[in-house]
Amino acid sequence: MMQSNEIEKIKILLSEKKKIIITTHYNPDGDAMGSSLGLYHYLKLKKHQVTVITPNSWPSFLDWMPGSTLCIAGDNHLKKAARLLEEADIIFSLDYNSLKRTNELAELIGEAKGIKIMIDHHVQPDDYADYTFSDVTASSTCEMIYEFINALEAEVAIGEDCAACLYTGIMTDTGSFKYSSTSSKTHQVVAELIQQGAKNTYIHRKLFDTNTYERLRLLGFCLSEKLTMLNDYHTAFVALTSSELENFNYKKGDTEGIVNYALSIKDINFSAIFIERDNEIKISFRSKGSFDVNSFARAHFEGGGHHNAAGGKGENTMDETIMKFVQLLPQYKQALAINE
Length: 340
Ligand code: 5GP
Ligand code: MN
Hints:
Elements: H1 4-13, E1 19-24, H2 30-45, E2 49-54, E3 72-73, H3 78-87, E4 90-94, H4 105-111, E5 115-120, E6 131-134, H5 141-152, H6 160-173, H7 184-195, H8 200-208, H9 213-225, E7 227-230, E8 235-240, H10 242-247, H11 258-263, E9 270-277, E10 280-287, H12 293-300, E11 304-305, E12 309-313, H13 318-328, H14 333-336
Parallel strand pairs: 1-2, 1-4, 2-3, 4-5, 5-6, 8-9
Antiparallel strand pairs: 7-8, 9-10, 10-12, 11-12
Helix pairs in contact: 2-5, 2-6, 3-4, 5-6, 6-7
Bound molecules: guanosine-5'-monophosphate (5GP) and manganese (II) ion (MN).
């Protein structure tokens, strides 16, 4: 996956002190933040000038991540982000493979003069980077960053902060090591990260045992009042309006994971959550087995992602979005019945 001639060229690039910007996708998740901050810590160890720019802010359950306070959220600091991108020698694209996924930053990154390096595990990468490292079999971008660092420098001591960040992204993107993307290599990398100082129990607690009272009540509300079962299509979904979110004092990240509860139901092979937020409908899709939610999201909801986990955008209103979704299911009836 990591072509040695490309790695050799990047080694030469990094042999002198550089101005480096690391970017990731809109609504950054654990893997986006983990890979960006993991690489940030490594490049800082190597004495480069490094800044992480995210298109918008990350959920507060990731605030504990070492280095997060130094990240710049582009939507609040667009001028600064523009200047930094313009001045950068190297720009990394991590955990995304299409500039569209960086929203307002897309044009700035596209037009920047710096050398662009993409490291990502989503399907169908766009062709805009000078170096493209794409591995759709990788569990996470964090796993790829670990490999990338080791390709640059064998058996390097990456430091506790880098290890903690990379561990976080692998853990979140594999659903705590249970999704089919989890390989023996994933576990080998994780073992190495723990060896290098990632405190696994501490990180699990920071991610999963920091619920607010409101967040748990929102989950309860979704499960008891908002879950729609379409048994004929082995499908379950939840739809949340902005006023419902307000009732539970919604904070970014509070709806994370709810879609997986719908998928955990026996004989449900496809789940979705529709969330009305910032004047648009954000959708998450999940599946078990062969049903390809990446293709589904691409074909119908301006989205994409992975085979079993993808996202997209809805129509103008929630009702229109749900109607479209429900009306699409009959054409997938056969595919939805299989869960291998
Ligand atoms: P989530 O549902 O957790 O937001 O995203 C699931 C997966 O799909 C993640 O890997 C995420 O990066 C990807 N994804 C989410 N929304 C979009 C989208 O609008 N377009 C594309 N191409 N991928 C998305
Ligand atoms: Mn990822």
